[in-house]
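Training component of the fellowship. As part of building independent skills, the fellow (R.M.) carried out the full modelling exercise for a liganded target. The chosen ligand was iron/sulfur cluster. The inputs are recorded below so that the supervisory panel can assess the work.
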Amino acid sequence: MTEENSNFEIVLPDGTIYKPKKADRETYSGVRGYDPDGKPKKMIFSTKNGCDRCGECCRRDTPIILKEDIVLLTKGIISERDLYTIREGEKIRSAIDGEMYYSSMELIKIKPIFGSFTCLFYDPAEGCTIYEQRPVVCRIYECWSQNISITGIETRRLTRADLFGRIDFLTEAIKKHEEKCSLHKFEDIICELKKDKQENIEKIAEMILYDSSLRDWLKEKLSLSDDVLPLLLGRSLFEIAPFYGLIIEKEGENFVTKVMQEEEE
Ligand code: SF4
Ligand code: SF4
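Fellow's submitted model of the complex:
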């Protein structure tokens, strides 16, 4: 059997039979649903008809917290330490396709386990450790059915205003932080950095300094531990800078910033 006479063929709508060469099949493999040997991949159907607590969704991403979940905070099932804020305009890597996206709105989520996408409440042996009291988004997600998305996030999402809106000085601190350390501004300055290095390095340094000083000030004023700050002010500029193409290092009292090389297309 020659390469062209193999059992792999495509019948086009006009009846033409197309038999790709091995090289073509390799190009299609993994891209158009073919296995490396050129045979079409088998369709996979879910055999589940309910949640068996396999934890696959828990290892892929962490849930957005809704206003309906506030009871979990009041009952102490989830604490402020377990949450973090994604700020409006923040670049986030999608756990589904690995691509970077901008968040169009502020979101509060459960933290992942450090260095992974896995939810903090997931235990490899036990599965979800708060299963009976898990957040609404986890309850709605039914991997075995079509019911995998949630509607009305914009109005249903929990925000920092819902949590801290009655505490004036915290509301003011969050507002000031958003003004001084806006992520849209942060990204614009990084883009400008390539044109006028000195002026923009100073602007970036000012933002970073404000971000870190405000964190220190809140920690001291409220006797907070570090792990509550990602909820109050989002992730630090240090932490998210690499997503914007910038590495920031602190050397003594100075900040050293390095612009990362853009990946070639
Ligand atoms: S909903 Fe999540 S934990 Fe439950 S079966 Fe599906 S993937 Fe597994
Ligand atoms: S809260 Fe529980 S169910 Fe929801 S993602 Fe985390 S471990 Fe999974």
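The panel noted the following from the submitted structure. The two ends are 39 Å apart (CA to CA). Residues 3 and 21 are 6 Å apart (CA to CA).
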